[in-house]
Each structure stands twice: as structure tokens, then as C-alpha cells.
Design goal:
- The longest helix has 16 residues, at 3-18.
- This protein is globular.
- It has helices at residues 3-18, 62-75, 92-97, 100-108, 124-131, 183-186, 194-208, 233-238, and strands spanning 32-39, 79-83, 113-114, 138-139, 144-145, 158-163, 166-173, 190-191, 213-218, 245-247, 259-262, 268-272, 280-288, 294-302.
- It has one domain (3-19, 34-302): Metallo-dependent phosphatases (Purple Acid Phosphatase, chain A, domain 2, 4-Layer Sandwich), CATH 3.60.21.
- By secondary structure, it is an alpha/beta fold.
- Strand 13 and strand 14 (294-302) form a beta hairpin.
- Keywords: Hydrolase, Nucleotide-binding.
- GO terms for molecular function: hydrolase activity, acting on ester bonds; metal ion binding; nucleotide binding.
- This is Bifunctional metallophosphatase/5'-nucleotidase.
Length: 303
């Protein structure tokens, strides 16, 4: 067995053991399997890194990511493909095409939804709006209020997906724009408290809509060592209930497998992020039985 395969299998098994579960406990005809694939902070990296790059030689690239996604969909057709924002800015492709190419390629790969990152405002809220016709997937952000902007009506607070008999509620959260993005770029976009917003979303998705899984697409950042009080994915997981998975972005954090955090009710929440530039593809497999018990495998796959 190759070293990378061994590491991936070990990480996946460790994730299951951390919950005190094993796949054997779900080996019945009644189990339902859902695969979550995710990216974040791709930043307009369309091509692989060059062969002489000092750190990421030959890594990434949309073509390889698309092939990998297609292979996984053949294994399990019940897939949700999600992105945690900062689709834009980082290569000349964005400077030249303004985001059109990124949205078209994501649509070709059949992304289901994305949240909005701070760099997605780099051509202004009007620039983001201009590219919306090229996106055949949902934009989800619950704490950005676009009511008084041209983006009004183009972004939903949440979306419910039905896959293999599993009802999945996905909501989005964005980082505070003030001080990070020029006011002239985001204009009248209103930032609302992400913790309060998350609690509202969970109430709707879990209590009212009775979702089996609740996923947050977050561009808040994984953790801030120098700003311990700043809201981040780890704090969001600790201070809420009924979120099963937080898919993060913004801090370009490379995790080999999801971090498991205890929430307010003492239950486990998965927090994952796969770095940046499309180098990795996150994969998390959920297994649910008829009693809604859950097991998971999680890993980061090098593209």
C-alpha cells in the first residue's frame, strides 16, 4: 500500500473511532450513505501549479479536480459538492474574465452551493452580480443582507437538499467585511452577527424543517490565535447546537481530517477546511441508519 493511501485510510478510520463508531455497525441494507465533497479559497486557480513550484509542484487544477469528482460520483451517486467562498481573485484568469470562467467551470463540475467570501467582492457587489448568470448553483449566506444592493434575490440564507432519503439543510455564514473589504465594494451589504444567525438557522433547519443533517458553509476562518475572542469555526461549533458539519474557509487552513468539537449539548461537530488554491478536495462520508444514528469518514484528498 502506498504511503499516501495508508495515511488516508488511517485518518478515515481514526475519524470513525473518535466517535466510538465503526462502519461495521452500519453494515445493513437500511443504512444510507451521503458523500460531501468540498473546496474553499480556490482563488481563481484554474491550472495546476507548475512543475518547478517549490511547495505545490503539479498540484491542483480544475481538470484533475473534475476527474476526481466524477470518479467519486461513480462510487456513490449521492454527492453534495460545496464551496466555502473566495472563489475569486488570485490569478490573471480573474483579472481578465472577472469570475465568469470560475463560475462556468464550477457549474460544469455540478457544484450544488457556495457561500460568499470577502474576495468575492473584489470587483464590487456589481461585479459579483454581473457573473451570476454563469453560476448554475446556489449562493447561500444567512448573515449577509443584500436587500439594498443589486444582489438582492440572488442569495438564499439556506437550501435544503434531499439525497438518498437524507434531508440535508445547508446554510452559509460570511466574515465581517468592515475593515477587510473597501466599503465601496460591498456598498449597502449588511453584516449580521454570525452566532445569532447560526442559532436562527439551526432552529429553522433542525426544529422546523426536521433535517437529518445540518451543514454550515462558513467563511469565518478556522481559528485566530492572536484574536481569541473573534468568532471562528471552532467557536461556532462550541457555542451552538445541532450543526453536524462546518465546512470552513478564509484562513487557508490545511486539515488532513475534520476536527471534532463538542457543542453546547456535548455532542460532536465536525469542522473541516482544505487549505486553498484547489490543491485539496475535502471528502466526508456520512452513514445514517433508520434511527438517525450517524457515523462518518473524513479526509483531505490531494488533487
Amino acid at each position: 500500500m502506498k504511503r499516501r493511501e495508508f495515511i488516508e485510510k488511517t485518518a478515515a478510520s481514526s475519524a470513525l473511532l473518535s466517535l466510538g463508531l465503526s462502519l461495521s455497525s452500519f453494515e445493513s441494507s437500511q443504512k444510507r450513505h451521503l458523500t460531501i465533497l468540498h473546496t474553499n479559497d480556490v482563488h481563481s486557480y484554474i491550472d495546476p501549479f507548475p512543475a518547478d513550484h517549490p511547495r505545490n509542484a503539479n498540484m491542483g487544477g480544475v481538470a484533475r479536480r473534475a476527474a476526481l469528482i466524477e470518479t467519486i460520483r461513480k462510487e456513490n451517486p449521492n454527492v453534495l459538492l460545496l464551496d466555502a467562498g473566495d472563489i475569486f481573485q488570485g490569478t490573471p484568469y480573474f483579472n481578465y474574465y472577472g469570475g465568469e470562467l470560475e463560475f462556468k467551470l464550477m457549474s460544469m463540475m455540478q457544484y450544488d452551493a457556495s457561500t460568499i467570501g470577502n474576495h468575492d467582492f473584489d470587483n464590487g457587489v456589481e461585479g459579483l452580480h454581473a457573473q451570476m448568470p454563469h453560476a448554475k448553483f446556489e449562493f447561500i449566506s444567512a448573515n449577509y443582507d443584500f436587500k439594498n444592493t443589486v444582489m438582492d434575490g440572488f442569495v438564499k440564507p439556506y437550501k435544503i437538499f434531499h439525497k438518498n432519503g437524507i434531508k440535508v439543510g445547508v446554510f452559509g455564514l460570511g466574515i465581517e467585511l468592515d475593515g477587510l473589504v473597501d466599503k465601496g465594494m460591498y456598498k449597502e451589504t449588511v453584516y449580521n452577527n454570525p452566532l445569532e444567525t447560526a442559532q436562527d438557522m439551526v432552529r429553522i433547519l433542525k426544529k422546523e424543517q426536521k433535517c437529518d443533517l445540518v451543514i454550515c458553509l462558513s467563511h469565518l476562518g478556522y481559528k485566530y490565535r492572536d484574536e481569541p475572542t473573534k468568532i471562528c469555526d471552532l467557536k461556532l461549533a462550541e457555542l451552538t447546537q445541532d450543526i453536524d458539519l462546518i465546512i470552513g474557509g478564509h484562513t487557508h487552513t490545511f486539515l488532513e481530517k475534520p476536527t471534532v468539537v463538542k457543542n453546547l449539548a456535548g455532542k460532536e461537530v465536525l469542522v473541516n477546511q482544505v487549505g486553498c488554491y484547489g490543491i485539496n478536495l475535502g471528502r466526508i462520508d456520512f452513514y445514517l441508519d433508520n434511527d438517525k444514528a450517524k457515523a462518518f469518514e473524513g479526509k483531505s484528498i490531494i488533487v
